[in-house]
Amino acid sequence: MIELYRSADCQECADIEAALKDMVLAHRIIIVAEGQQTDALPAATSLPAIKDEGQIFTGRTEINAHLKELEHLAFEWRKYQSDSCYTNEDNDYCA
Length: 95
Fold this sequence. Notes:
This protein is of the alpha+beta class. It has one domain (2-85): Glutaredoxin. Helices cover 34% and strands 25% of the residues. The protein contains 2 helices and 6 strands. The strands form 2 sheets. A 4-stranded mixed sheet has the order 2-1-3-4, with helices on one face. The protein has a two-stranded antiparallel ribbon with strand order 5-6. The longest helix is centred in the C-terminal third of the chain and has 20 residues, at 60-79. It starts with a strand and ends with a strand.
């Protein structure tokens, strides 16, 4: 599961959280109090941080790149779900 580690008063963190919600991906939000460290992240990991399948993404560039990758994966996944129609010259198929 995707985990977003963020501080409470962080607009960038709120934007990342909103992006995850907009993508409708299963995720968990962990609020880390200022000055506190969580055992789930390596020491001195800067916030915001995304932990996804054991990988940790920090920094605006790295997080934005991962969000774009997640968006692409979600699009591809949903493209082949049962509410799609596929057509070819021989027949149409809608599930």
